[in-house]
Structures are given as structure tokens and as C-alpha cells.
Amino acid sequence: MEEKIKEILAKANELLPAARTKTEIAEIGASITGPNGELTALMKTIPTLDKSQRPIVGKLINAAKKQIEPLISAAYARVESEAMASALGPKPDITLPNIDARRGTIHPLTLTIRRICDIFKRAGFTVAEATDMETEWFCFDALNTPSDHPARDAQDTLFMPPQTRVSNVSKHADELYLLRSHTSSVQIRAMLKEGAPIRIVAPGRAFRRDTVDATHSANFHQIECLCIDKGVKLTDLKAALDYLFRSLFGKSSKSRLRPSFFPFTEPSFEVDFMSADIGRLSNRWIEIMGCGMVDPEVIKNVGLDPEIWSGYAFGLGVERVAMLTHSIDDIRNFYANDARFLRQFSNR
Fold first, then answer.
1. Residues 249 and 147 reside in one and the same domain
2. How far apart are CA 286 and CA 273, in angstroms?
3. Mean pLDDT of 85-111
């Protein structure tokens, strides 16, 4: 058993530093510490061992996990750093720093996005991104929302002129460009590119023709979550939601599903959650997002067989989570660029 654990550690030390993409890192991590990973399989054999050996083996496995988790985190940081360096180009020569400038802080919405993405990375998901500009087919038709569908009334807005050409946003046919009204379109592009199985979270900005007030904004941020695999069930969706809420709002959190309708999921649900750790809103049900099992028509639209593949999806408002996490009562604070507000998050 000890030799097997050493082999797994050696594998992690060899493969993780050599991984070049986030997908490779996620696959390596899942093969070792995931539900069907090698360490998990060893853990399941502990009850079959002699009683005197069980605590020894358990201790060895836990020690191995503590060594592997930093390797996974370091691999993600390295890949992200390399991507950032490539995007920024040659490093500028800065010889006279401004010693009087205040130290900057990370925006609370960025902090919230990073936190949610980190939660799902630990569950084997990767982060997928696309542009704010989208096309009709990817934003609506591929998501089972054709032009005559009533569900498009509130979202079918902010179109570009017909003559608009965008070189880095591919079209399905000759549809119009628009500012995307949700990040659900990312799941279509990701499935067309990567196929199945796939597990992604897609953070990004979205746009709708909303009247701005304390709880609404014409531009906002979403995180779309998609899981497509063989045999995915509604119970898997519920487990993912419970995992998310407990990670965000504490172990007292619980969720419930209420039947609803979304064109791209069937069945569909509104999600309420409750937590004892969110201040004055503690211990009361709060509506927070929509979710459901991916509609078979959506799976067909990306060239997959719904008889083989199934999955779940849900979309989470980043501003909503940030407001609940930090007891913020006006969404406009996120966009006012008031340094007094933003400096409060320097140590979060």
C-alpha cells in the first residue's frame, strides 16, 4: 500500500509540472483525487484492511493528499501566469515607481468570481470564457429559444447593426451580432469545441435592457455551470448546488428546488437557499438562481446524442452572491468606482 501511494505521488510530481492547459491539470487532478481517482480508490479499501493497519494507511493517504493539492494549485497558477504573460507581451522597463500611489485592491466582483471558480475547480471543473459579443444562434437558437419564443422578449435586445463584422466571434450562419444576455452561450461554444464529457464554469459579463436601480443593472456578471456526462441525474445537480452553497455561505446552508421554466433545461427549477451565517437575512429562504437538466434539444444542437449524454446547468448572478456575502444593499456600488467602497475589500 505504501509503495502504491509513493507511485501516485511520483505520478503527480511528474505530470502536474508538465501540464500545459487547465483541462490537462483538471484531468490529472481528477484521476488522482477525484471521485474515481487512484487515491480515492485506495481510501475505499481501508475497511478491508486489518484493524491495526487502517489508521496507518489512512494517515498515509491524507498526507499524500496534502502534498498533491499544492501541486495542483501551483500548476493552475503557472498556466494562468503563462497565459497572462503571453497576453501582456514583453515586460515594460519600469525604473521610477510612484512611491506616493495607494496600493490597489481587487474588485469585489473579481474576488467573488475567483472564489466560485476555485470552488468548482476543486470538483474537477474547468473555466471556459468567450467574448461579450455573441450571435443570435449561440445566444438563443442553440439554447432552444427560437425567434418566436416568448422567453426571448426580455433578453432579445442590444443588437448590433446588420453590417457589423466581428473577426473573433464566429457565426453559425448569417445571424446578427448582439451583446450576450447570459453566459449560457459559452456552454454551446464549449460543447461544439470539446464535445462530451465536459464540466465547465463560464464566468463573464452579460447585458440586458434593464432599468437601473438598487437590485438591477443593464450590465452584470454571471457564472454558468455545465456538466455533461453519461448517467447524470437530477440528484447530481442538487448535490452540486448544496456543495456550492455550503462552500460560499457555511455548513448550515441548504437549498430547495421549485418547478419553473427555462427553454434550455427540462425539467427546470428556481433555486432557493437558506443559511444561518448571512447576517440579517439568516434563516430565511432566498431565491438566488435558475437551474435544470439540459434539454435534449440543446444536446442535439451541438451534435451529441441525448440518448447517451445528459447533464445539468445553472446560472448564478455574481453581483447577487457578492451582495449577500458582504451585506451590500445597492448593486450600483459595484460600478460607481468609489475608492472608499472598493478599499473595504483589500483584505478579503
1. yes
2. 5
3. 80
